[in-house]
Amino acid sequence: MAGGGDLKLLGVWTSPYVIRVRVALNLKSLPYEYVEENLGSKSALLLASNPVHKTVPVLLHGGRPVNESQVILQYIDEVYASNGPSVLPADPYERAAARFWAAYVDDKVGAAWQGMLFTCRTEEERAAAVARAVAALQTLEGALEECSKGKAFFGGDAIGFVDVVLGGYLGWFGAVDKMIGRRVIDPAKTPLLARWEERFRAAEAAKGVVPDDADKMLEFLPTLLALSAPKSK
Amino acid sequence: MAAVEWSSTRRAFEVAWLALVALLVAAVLDDELTRERTGEMRGVLVVSVAVDDTRDSRSGVKFDVNLDLSGMVDIVSDQNTLCLAYKAEPSSAASVHTVLHSVIHTQKERKKELQRMVAGEEKGLVLLDFWVSPFAQRCRIALAEKGLACESVEQELLGEKGELLLRSNPVHKKVPVLLHAGRAVCESLVILEYIEDAFPEVAPRLLSADPLARAHARFWADYVDKTVYGIGTRLWKLKGEGRAAARAEMLETLRTLDGELGGKAFFGGEAFGFVDVALIPLTSWFYSYEEHGGFSVQEEFPRLAEWARRCGERESVAKILTRPEDVLDFIGLLKKCYGIVE
Question: Do residues A184 and A133 make contact, with C-beta atoms less than 8 angstroms apart?
């Protein structure tokens, strides 16, 4: 069943959590209305749709909200099962592995991402957060080797759950790379992930949603920092 | 395999026995150590006993802190550390040897059995567990509700964690871990989803078939994970402003959960489900949060309190949840370990 009703996504163009949902919608070739939210002045629709967290992304399906990006990804998989491949694999054990690694990404990489852009007060603190991200990425390098079994993505031949979850951070990593003058995903430390990044960015589903203009993101950063506690999940 | 129950009395006795033996191994094999360790020293004995085929029993015993020789045993832990508050009378040398041999023998047999399980020779379910862990209890409740037999294997979480745990969860080194035909699944909510996926024919279903209902359940389970335990830990660990802030956040969280529950019997509606399983083990900790925060769940959130009682009527929940008093004792001993004085 392709679901009853239109799709609308409330988001912010830089949010890793929004980007991953857009990639997933693209993978299923699903048309949707995209609404850019101003986090400094959240829409009534956003506040009504996600009263608990008041954050993006929010997916509205026939007007009914689904919140939390990883929850949204699974919702899309389940409702649009006949619209092409799912990001989660079919095998229960592989699904568990994908969920485990996706949780790890948001737990470790996500926390470091917050640290390197939004909560650091000095360049030393930023560097420390980057180091935490790099450490997590080194673990993910091993996970990529294991999950991909020599293929292009965590999901194998096709982009999967862990790929979209991690891929959402690539836009900001590009911006941080520019800030600090070196790569967060360092080809010397994490060669598999470096090649993975190229493939992910080049994918059709990522076009136009994974930001590739680091300057544009850095221009937008002060706006985000001006908000008291930017939490986009 | 029959599900293993761990009553706190039995556990305390077994650990006391093990701890006694550990102590006496050193007493028998190393007189100097005995002279250092006996006497009037008080405090917490931290014992890790690892009986390994490749090491002799002497090198397998470690002592870290002082020891008090005059009473019973308590076990304290959070997800990462284990402390044994140990007090016991040493017995004679002869009985030490007998006890020692039988314990080591049992441990070796146990290890071989577990190794067979890990190798996939056993098709069953094994849960790497810790008695007070609310996250492990989520998994045990789900399995019990579904009538899926699972062997609970209590882990030592102090210092040197068991080889099986480290091998099964190298990334986090935490419980719970579900082993199914030797393959490890980690993270309690991931385990709950796995149980749904891997046993699709087994009732009751904890997640609805409807995608929107599933999304709501996942959202609320995620909310529980982001809030209750973390805020609760700050509530008992911190003082002054830190505790006040945690108290406010805890009340906000419980208010939100109470609001979401509303007038429903369970979070998902009429049937006990995913969110109920995710939250109910944490209700054993409510008493401790109330004591530290100076509030009453019954008074502030009667619907939530009623829901907890309703869940507690289920056999699985009644058997598996830790008694609130035991959680409070556990927190008390954790504080001792961390050097926190009330």
Answer: yes
Q: For chain B, give me the number of helices (H) and strands (E)?
A: 14, 8
Q: Quick check: B177 pLDDT over 90? A: yes
The answer to whether residues A115 and A127 touch, using CB atoms and an 8 Å cutoff, is: no
Tokens standing for B108? 């070796």
Residues 6 or more apart in contact with residue B263 via CB below 8 angstroms: B303
Subunit contact B180:A75, Cβ cutoff 8 A: no
Token duo for residue B219: 């959202």
Burial of B167 (0-12, 13-18, 19+ CB in 10 A): exposed
Q: For residue A174, which amino acid is it?
A: G
Q: Is the ipTM of this complex over 0.90?
A: yes
Q: What are the residues whose beta carbons fall under 8 Å from the beta carbon of B99, sequence distance 6 or more?
A: B17, B20, B21, B24
The tokens describing B152, both together, are 């609970």
Weakest mean pLDDT among A64-68, A134-138, A146-150, B56-60: B56-60
Candidate ranges B160-164, B178-182, B192-196; pick with highest mean pLDDT? B192-196
A66 in contact with B, Cβ within 8 Å: yes
Cα–Cα distances in angstroms (integers) from residue A224 to residues A51, A172, A210, B95, B223, in the given order: 21, 13, 18, 70, 24
Cis geometry, peptide bond prior to residue B204 (ω within 30 degrees of 0)? yes
The residues facing B129 across adjacent strands are B154
Q: Could you tell me how many CB contacts below 8 A there are between chain A and chain B?
A: 56
Neighbours of A206 (CB within 10 A): 23
Cβ distance A93 to B212 less than 8 Å, yes or no, reads no
pLDDT tens for each residue of B10-34: 555 555 555 555 555 444 443 323 2
Using alpha carbons, select from A21, A25, A54 the residue that is nearest to residue A165. A21
DSSP state of B281: G
